[in-house]
Design brief:
This protein is of the alpha+beta class. 20% of the residues lie in helices and 20% in strands.
Amino acid sequence: MRTALVGKPTVCFDAPGLVGPTPTLGRVVERVESHGRHLEIVWDDGLVLHTNLRLTGTWHLYREGERWRRSVMDKRVEVRNPSWVAVCFAAPVVEVYRQLDRSRHPGLGPLGPDLSRPGVDVDESINRLYHYRDQAAPVAEALLDEHVATGIGNVYRCEALWAAGVHPFAPVSSLDADDCARIIEVVVRLAQANLRQVGRILTPFVEHELAVYGRNGQGCERCGDTVTVCRSGDHQRLLYWCAGCQTHRSPIVDTMHHQDDTREMDPHPAAVKFLHDLPWRRGDLAG
């Protein structure tokens, strides 16, 4: 399910009888985690689908158009992207909730502008980032705070920081007004370019769909270095970036403490061989 769902936008979500929030179409699945008979699907805006399979529940994965092996009457959840359909059958517990995020508390002020809306007050969002309440916070974390702007999500923050060439762990205090403007203006371009896109998320900065998000272990389109991934913030969200060219406002302190043992991909032998044979891994670019 990780291979089929992670990094891909959701085009359909159906959970008969579920009461509560549902994923916004176009949002990207960020993680799929299992803990015994509990399985969680996490979207890039912090929404979590939790299922407890107990003795009767099961998840099936189908290619688009493939015949289901169980009756639709047993369906509890359906999560669909352009290529795959994940279906949960007969799970006793199905619930959706948002991860706790103290930065969303109304006591911290009104939410920021929705950058996907035409005519949005871009200057307001730039000003909120420049005067962010926690000046020591990394810019990558500030961009996920909806008091700066709403609707950014994890995909857009990774892509925007790459396009602006800004180091994701640069503290907000190190950014000047031009830095903040460049970052927010890139987010606006991304959000509005994808306003009516549901099946996939596009970026105008590279030939293929995304520059860094979901491309860990691959070569950077701009500098040729290897795109890396690490976990950051209170919720350990996946952060994709290129250390080779995202050097603007690079923090003086060593950022290795932000790294963890996140796998580049599931350790299938073919995947291991693929990564090993990448030219920039072999060190034979000159050849």
